[in-house]
């Protein structure tokens, strides 16, 4: 079993995994990971700061079997639906879900 830290972007729902335990990463390190991604969202500085804080405070430590570890999106930010995460890896966001965009659109074709 191997530990990893999962970050999630509240804007586009992309996820990023970092190998290791959460306490191995300073807040600054996690912030810079978040910021790198947020730069792609064309936000102004205050919004980047707010989102960055949210991503860091929602960072979740998970432990996965070694053979599953390489399936995690450890190299880059990846769309939530395009990668694998264990069940319950992102259960921390109950607080402010209604504040985010209405990304749940069911198209019944
Ligand atoms: Zn994003």
From TrEMBL:
Compositionally biased intervals (Basic and acidic residues): 67-83
Compositionally skewed regions (Low complexity) per UniProt: 96-109
Superkingdom of the organism of origin: Archaea
Region listing for Disordered, in residue ranges: 24-43, 66-109
UniProt name for this protein: Uncharacterized protein
Species for this entry: Halorubrum tropicale
